[in-house]
Amino acid sequence: MYRIASPHDADDAEADDANKVHKQQWLDEVNEEAQAAATIVGDVAERLRRLGTAYGEWKHFDAPAYFDIPQPQADLLLTVVERVSSVYVHFQMDLLLPSFGAAESYWANHFAPAYHAANIAHLGRDELVDGWEIGPRSTHRTNGNHVGKSLNGADVALLSSSNKNAFVHDFFAEVQPTMLSHWQRLMAVIQAARRILVDDIGYLTTNGVEDERNRYYQHWQHEPAPGLPAELCPALEDIPTLSLTFTFPLPVHRQSGRLRRLRTNRERNRRRKGRGKN
Question: Is the distance from CB of 159 to CB of 121 less than 8 angstroms?
Answer without folding.
Answer: yes
